[in-house]
Write a structure and sequence with these properties.
The complex is a heterodimer. Chain A is of the alpha+beta class. Chain A has one domain (7-64): Alpha-Beta Plaits (2-Layer Sandwich). Helix content of chain A is 14%, strand content 19%. Chain A is built from two helices and five strands. Chain A has helices spanning 25-29, 53-57, and strands at 7-8, 14-15, 35-38, 41-44, 63-64. In chain A, the strands form two sheets. A three-stranded antiparallel beta sheet of chain A has the order 1-2-5, with no helix packed on it. A two-stranded antiparallel sheet of chain A has the order 3-4. In chain A, a hairpin with a 2-residue loop joins strand 3 and strand 4. Chain A is globular. Chain B has a single domain, classed as Rossmann fold. In chain B, helix 1 packs across helix 7 (175-187) and helix 4 (93-99) packs across helix 5 (101-110). Chain B is an alpha/beta fold. Chain B has nine helices and eight strands. An eight-stranded mixed beta sheet of chain B has the order 2-1-3-4-6-5-8-7, sandwiched between helices. Classes of the chains: A alpha+beta, B alpha/beta. Chain A binds chain B through residues 1-4, 18-25, 28-29, 56-61, and chain B through 4, 7, 9-10, 12-14, 16-24, 26-27, 175, 212-214, 217-218.
């Protein structure tokens, strides 16, 4: 069996409601306060800087954010 | 092979409490295995009793969930019967140094080629929050309502009293250091012990006045400081790696 597909709450952020336990760690770890809960659903305010801290600290493989593309010089 | 291949997805979500950091350590172990490119057929995860003992069931590799405190002898037996396997012990402090303290002592002495990941939350979490050998001095628990009157066990001292050792102390807040330590331990030929400082919110933190798991996570940030090049052994509240490539005499 594979990981749940989840839903895109932002073009960058995938959230899997099946795995989420609503522990609020991602919301508090986010440096730009991008994430919040609205009626038990996670919403993004569109300020994501792709630091991936929410993905790193999430204990339940719930959030996924792609890494930032390196600047081509 | 990516890190998602090491996880048994049909058993998700895990039964750990919301905000518990065992999931963070579990995730970083799968990332370290991806980085070290360990084939799934050539590794075994052994875990004992406790919340972190559940992790053996969430790994999509051969795994054993053994009785109280016996994770290290079972892992050592597996390693001795098949030398090719990479054997990882993933368990908690109550299981490894509390109940199975004697096995830990002698495995460290024999320098068996197993990697031990010990999640140290300083409490017997799953059984309701009783005082453990690793509970810090003066902390209030279920069985010590006026604060513990004993000093915690010195795990670093036990490991480093041998001629050849590898010991790391890291925390579930310092995830980059955790990932680095896990990767280094997988490479080390011998007994590697990683003590991951962690917390228990439901049965320990609530008695101390913490409301949420992330409050305790940020307390780890305040309490522990990284020491990249320790002079001798690590002091209290320092994170780092100490090792000695000595020969047993």
């Amino acid at each position: 069996m594979h990981q749940a597909i989840g839903k895109k709450i932002d073009p960058l952020i995938t959230w899997r409601p099946e795995y989420c336990k609503r522990c609020f760690t991602c919301i508090n770890i986010c440096p730009v306060k991008n994430l919040m809960f609205q009626d038990d659903e996670m919403v993004s305010l569109g300020k994501c800087i792709q630091c991936q801290l929410c993905e790193k600290y999430c204990p339940d493989f719930t959030i996924e954010v792609p890494p930032r593309k390196e600047d081509k010089k | 092979m990516i890190y998602k291949d090491y996880v048994k997805w049909d058993r998700m979500p895990t039964n750990w409490c919301p905000g518990c950091s065992i999931g963070t350590v579990f995730r970083h172990l799968t990332l370290a295995l991806e980085k070290a490119a360990v084939p799934r057929e050539q590794m075994v995860v052994v875990s004992g009793i406790g919340c972190s003992g559940r992790a053996a069931g969430y790994f999509n590799v051969d795994s054993v969930h053994v009785t109280h405190g016996r994770a290290i002898p079972v892992a050592e037996g597996i390693k001795r019967s098949n030398e090719k396997l990479k054997v990882i012990v993933f368990s908690g402090d109550g299981d490894l140094v509390g109940i199975g303290g004697n096995h830990f002592l002698h495995s460290a002495r024999r320098d068996s080629d197993i990697k031990v990941i010990c999640i140290n939350n300083g409490i017997y979490g799953m059984t309701g929050g009783q005082m453990a050998p690793t509970t810090p001095f003066g902390e209030k628990t279920l069985t010590s309502p006026f604060g513990t009157s004993y000093a915690p066990l010195n795990i670093q001292g036990i490991v480093t009293s041998n001629a050849r050792y590898w010991y790391a102390r890291t925390s579930s807040y310092h995830v980059n250091h955790l990932l680095k330590c896990l990767g280094e331990a997988l490479e080390w030929p011998g007994f590697a012990f990683i003590e991951v400082m962690s917390f228990c919110i439901e049965n320990f933190g609530r008695r101390q006045g913490f409301k949420n798991g992330f409050d305790m996570l940020f307390k780890l940030k305040q309490d522990y400081k990284l020491n990249p090049k320790p002079d001798g052994l690590l002091k209290n509240h320092e994170l780092g790696v100490v090792k000695n490539v000595g020969q047993a005499s």
